[in-house]
Structure formats: structure tokens, C-alpha cells
Design goal:
The protein is about 70% helix and about 5% strand. The protein has 21 helices and three strands.
């Protein structure tokens, strides 16, 4: 693919063009393109399964570490706190890298950090300390913070503005493929045959239990060993592929039409005064926290309700969950093409809240199956909230606004920890799912308000 720069004509907005197999694709001054470059869009979308695999492996690690390190539900949930805490801390620095360079540069940096984080699992397994594993997970999250901050916003920009939400929803459809891959890797490489870890450890002497735990920690290396090879291949593909910049054009020659790049403090001041943006951030915080919490404790819920199954069998419920998540995205895309996305997601939120009530209070295996089914309703939420929140921001603030929306992923660090604490305090893993019920209610309120705003317009 060959890049061409148009002449910078006085008084006109700068436009950048890209020659591709589809012909010339024009980039406008707001950063959007006249058409979507298909090859680049597919390659970009292939990043989404990469953080899906890392996130779903956390669900495996929570269950594994609880038994190996003898943790409470709250302490085991710190896996998610380390993971999403990394997102929170790195999102703004990642946005600054994007502002100074390009989306492609931030993506390459993210892939490098991801590889380093996976590599840290090797010393962690030999040191056999929980804190070292948390450090490795935190390092992976730094890489994923770069990837998500760049890729989510870049997906919305990589084509015409009017299809920004649709593009992000299509890219997000790739996420559950990675999530299912992560669970399968965990099921067959981390979890082993036999009874549950707790039941096996209960029959061992102190020395036998220590040796067994060390052996179980060695199994956590295998998925990350395979992921490193995939990441290296993706890094090379991105490095040799040319991408459009999709950056807002800043000109000094035109007094009326120039779009000046605002400073960081000015951007924060603008975003702090944008009510719609703040509501979107809070809703995304609660949504991500709820989704992560449900997935974090589905295996634990299955083991609690049916103590006769082991971790490997219980992992099947997470596979079913991600299949539901995948199907739910396609169903939602179809429904949102025919009906208002706000109405569709309000309807989803109502159903999801009712399912979570059932999960919290009905003490049989059907509660686990409904914990699986609720993933159908998660499918379109992240991408739609992200795109709608970003749309409420003036184009010159896009990079920082996108980073702050990604920062709302910190909900994945907080809500699972709260659910784990509720489980410890009440002694009921099942009742702790009420935390997610209240989160889904809040998400429903956001879309109900959006429906009212839509009607008013």
C-alpha cells in the first residue's frame, strides 16, 4: 500500500490519501476515512482476541490460585485488580503516545509489553509467590492498556464517521474467539484430570501438598508460552503493514477552519464539564466490572453448587459463556440494525437484571446455566457505550477521551473484589451475584435515559 500526501493548500483542510487494492481512500481533516481499508481493519480486529485470551485466562487463574495459595474469594479476585489496575494506570500514557506518534506505534508498544508480561510467568512459577504472579499479570495489562486504548478508538476511525459504532461492534465480535481460546488453553493446560484441587489437597500430607502445589503452578506456564509465539507473529505483521494515520489535522495557516490540538489540562477541563461523557464513563465502569465479576466467579459458582465436579469440568461453563457472548453480539448487531440501539440495550439490561436475581437466590445447577446465559446480553454493551461516549466529545479531544473510557475498565478491578468480599462476609458465593444485579440495573438506567434523549430529539 502506497501513501500519497496532497498539497497543503492555503485555507483548505489537509487531507491524506491512501492507495489500496480498493482504490484511493481519502482521509478527512477529522481523522475519519472515506472508506474502510479491509486488510488493515481485519488485522486490527485480530488484536481483540489477544486481550480476550488474557482476560479469560484470569478466570482460570482465580480458581487455580485460590486452592494453590489458600486464598479467600476477595484475595483471589486481586488477580482482576492487578489486571485492570494496569489498564487504569497506562491508558493516559498510552493516549499521549498516540497523540505524539500514531495508533500503529502504540499498538506495537502494547504487543511488546504483552510479550514481556507473558515472559514473567516463567520466573513467577519458579518463585512460587502470589505477588510475583500478580506482577506478571500487571505487566500483561500494561501491554493490553496500550492495545485497547489504540485499537478501540482506531476501529471507530478506520472508515466513514457514520459507521463508527458498527465498525467497533464488528471488531469486538472477534473478542469472544480469543476468550474461548483462553478458556480452552486453561482447561487443558492448567487444570488437570482427577478430583477438584480442594478435594485432592485435603487428602495429602503437608509435604505432599507443597509438592503438588508447585506442580500445579508449573502448569500455568503453558498457555503463556503459546501466546508468546502468536504475539511475535502479530507484531511482525503490524510492523510490515502500512496503516493510515487517522489523526485530526491541525493547521496553522487557516484562521477559521484550523483545528488546534488542545493541551492535556485543557482536555481534562473540557471532559470534566461534559456530562454525557461522565455518565458514559460511570456506566462503562459498572458494566465492565459486572461482566468481569460474573465471568470471574462462574467456575467457583459451579464448584459450590455441584461439589462433585472438578475445575476442568467446571471450565466448560466458561466455554458456554463465551459462545453465548459471541452469539449475543451477532443477535445484537442484527437487532440494532433494525431498532434503536438504546432500546435494544435497555431491553437487554432488564432481562439481565432478572437473570441475575435468579442466579442469586435459586440454589440448584440451573443458576449456573443462567450465569452462562446472561453472557448473551453482555455482547453489545462495551462497544456501544464506548462509541456513544466518544461521540459526545469534540474531535480534537478524541485520543484522551478514548483513553479515559478505557480507564473505566478499572471497574474490572473493583467490582469482582467487592463481590469476593460479599461472598466472604455472607459465606455465600451465590448471594454475592447480587452485586452484579445492581450494576446491570444502573446500565439499564443509562440506556433508559438515552431512549428519552433520543425521543426528545
Amino acid at each position: 500500500m502506497e501513501k500519497i500526501e496532497k498539497a497543503d493548500l492555503p485555507g483548505e483542510l489537509v487531507r491524506e490519501e491512501t492507495k489500496s487494492a480498493m482504490g484511493v481512500i481519502e482521509q478527512y481533516s477529522d481523522g475519519y476515512l472515506s472508506r474502510t481499508p479491509i486488510m488493515q481493519f481485519i488485522l486490527l480486529s485480530c488484536l481483540f482476541p489477544l486481550w480476550g485470551a488474557a482476560a479469560s485466562l484470569n478466570d482460570i487463574l482465580i480458581t487455580q490460585f485460590k486452592s494453590v495459595f489458600t486464598l479467600s474469594d476477595f484475595a483471589s479476585a486481586l488477580v482482576q485488580s492487578a489486571f485492570y489496575g494496569g489498564y487504569f494506570l497506562i491508558s493516559i500514557p498510552a493516549s499521549m503516545v498516540i497523540r505524539k506518534t500514531t495508533y500503529k506505534t502504540a499498538i506495537l508498544a502494547g504487543l511488546l509489553f504483552y510479550i514481556v508480561g507473558c515472559s514473567l510467568f516463567f520466573p513467577a512459577s519458579h518463585m512460587a509467590t502470589y505477588n510475583m504472579f500478580l506482577l506478571a499479570i500487571f505487566s500483561i495489562a500494561i501491554g493490553l492498556g496500550f492495545l485497547e486504548t489504540a485499537a478501540n478508538t482506531y476501529s471507530t476511525m478506520l472508515g466513514p464517521r457514520k459507521h463508527a459504532t458498527l465498525r467497533l461492534n464488528i471488531s469486538q465480535t472477534f473478542y469472544p474467539i480469543g476468550a474461548m481460546s483462553g478458556i480452552l488453553l486453561g482447561k487443558y493446560l492448567v487444570f488437570q484430570d482427577g478430583g477438584s484441587l480442594a478435594s485432592q489437597l485435603a487428602q495429602m500430607t503437608i509435604e505432599e501438598a507443597k509438592a503438588f502445589k508447585l506442580e500445579m503452578l508449573q502448569h500455568t506456564l503453558e498457555p503463556y508460552h503459546m501466546i508468546i509465539y502468536v504475539l511475535a507473529a502479530v507484531f511482525i505483521l503490524f510492523a510490515i503493514t502500512k496503516f493510515p494515520k487517522c489523526k485530526v489535522a491541525a493547521q496553522e495557516n487557516s484562521e477559521e477552519s484550523a483545528i488546534k490540538t488542545p493541551g492535556f489540562s485543557e482536555t481534562l477541563s473540557y471532559l470534566a464539564g461534559n456530562l454525557h461523557f461522565k455518565k458514559g464513563i460511570l456506566t462503562q465502569f459498572l458494566y465492565v466490572g459486572m461482566q468481569v465479576a460474573v465471568w470471574s466467579f462462574t467456575i467457583r459458582l459451579a464448584l459450590t453448587i455441584d461439589p462433585n465436579i472438578n475445575e476442568r469440568l467446571a471450565a466448560n461453563f466458561m466455554i458456554y459463556s463465551f459462545i453465548c457472548f459471541f452469539v449475543g453480539k451477532f443477535v445484537a448487531n442484527f437487532l440494532m440494525a433494525k431498532f434503536s440501539p438504546n432500546k435494544v440495550l435497555f431491553f437487554y439490561s432488564v432481562i439481565g437484571s432478572l437473570l441475575l436475581l435468579y442466579i442469586s437466590f435459586v440454589p440448584d445447577i440451573s443458576a449456573v446455566y443462567l450465569a452462562v446465559a446472561v453472557s448473551i446480553l453482555f455482547g453489545p454493551c462495551w462497544a456501544t457505550i464506548y462509541a456513544k461516549t466518544l461521540e459526545s466529545v469534540d474531535e480534537q479531544y478524541t485520543e484522551t477521551a478514548g483513553a479515559m473510557i478505557v480507564m473505566s475498565i478499572i471497574g474490572g478491578a473493583c467490582i469482582p473484589a467487592i463481590q469476593g468480599l460479599v461472598s466472604d462476609l455472607t459465606g455465600s458465593m451465590q448471594l454475592s451475584f447480587m452485586v452484579n444485579f445492581f450494576c446491570f440495573l444502573a446500565v439499564g438506567k443509562y440506556f433508559y435515559d438515552e431512549v428519552k434523549i433520543e425521543k426528545a430529539r
